[in-house]
C-alpha cells in the first residue's frame, strides 16, 4: 500500500513538473529570413525562442511554404518579416497573424532611400508590366549596416512594448549590436579607400543598399528578376559591359541557379565568386558578421 501511495505521489509530481515546464516555455519569435533571425536571436537573448521560416538556402522571392513550414505561425508571439514583396508567398499567412506581425520595411519607411533600379539594358528590354510593382523599391534592406542600426533601434522599442519585462535585456543588447555595426561601418569605409572606383556585377541586385552606402558601382546583374534567367540578348549586353569595364569576376548566389553565371565566366574568363545575402553557410552568428563576410568576398572581385 505504501508503495502504491508513493507511486501515485511521484506520478503527480512528475505531471505537475511537466505542466510547469510547459507553462515556462519561452515565447516564440519568428523571422521570415535568416538575417532577421540573427537579429532577433542577438536582441532577445536566452529569454525567447527564435526560429526562421524560409530556409536560408532558398530564395525568399520564389519559396512557397508547405504545411510543415507553417506549424509555428499559430504559436508565435512575434513575427518579423522584411516586406516590400520579398516574401510574397507568405503575405496571406502574415495577414492572419497581423496582431503579432511587423515588417522591417514599415519600421524603416521614413528613412529607406528610394533607389533607381538599374536593369540590364533597360531601354532596350522593357520590364514586363506584371513585375513593375515588385521593383518599385529594392527589398534587400538587411545588406546595409546603417539601415540595420536603425532597424534594431525600432525593434528594441517594439519588443519592449510587447514584452515589457524584458525591456532591459532588449535595450542592453540593442546598444551592443548597434555598436558592432558602427564599428563595421568604420572598418569598411577604411578598407574601401584602398580601391579606386570599385564596381561589380552581381547575380541579382540583392546588395543595392550596401553598394549605395559605400559608393560601389553596380555595373549590372545577371537576373533581371529573381528566378528569371537572362535571354541571349541580355547576356550579350552584359558581355559588352564586362569588356568595357574590364570586369574580373562574376558573383553567384547560393539561392540562385548558377548556369548563366558559369556561361559568362567561361566566355569572358571571369573568376566565379559567391555572395550570400542570406548566410546559407551558417558561418555568421550576428548580422554584423553576415555583412562583413560578404564584404570580404566582394573585395576579391574588385
TrEMBL record:
<dbReference type="Pfam" id="PF01297">
    <property type="entry name" value="ZnuA"/>
</dbReference>
<dbReference type="InterPro" id="IPR006129">
    <property type="entry name" value="AdhesinB"/>
</dbReference>
<keyword id="KW-0813">Transport</keyword>
<protein>
    <submittedName>
        <fullName>ABC-type Mn/Zn transport system, periplasmic Mn/Zn-binding (Lipo)protein (Surface adhesin A)</fullName>
    </submittedName>
</protein>
<dbReference type="GO" id="GO:0007155">
    <property type="term" value="P:cell adhesion"/>
</dbReference>
<dbReference type="InterPro" id="IPR006127">
    <property type="entry name" value="ZnuA-like"/>
</dbReference>
<dbReference type="InterPro" id="IPR050492">
    <property type="entry name" value="Bact_metal-bind_prot9"/>
</dbReference>
<comment type="similarity">
    <text>Belongs to the bacterial solute-binding protein 9 family.</text>
</comment>
<keyword id="KW-0732">Signal</keyword>
<dbReference type="InterPro" id="IPR006128">
    <property type="entry name" value="Lipoprotein_PsaA-like"/>
</dbReference>
<dbReference type="GO" id="GO:0046872">
    <property type="term" value="F:metal ion binding"/>
</dbReference>
<dbReference type="GO" id="GO:0030001">
    <property type="term" value="P:metal ion transport"/>
</dbReference>
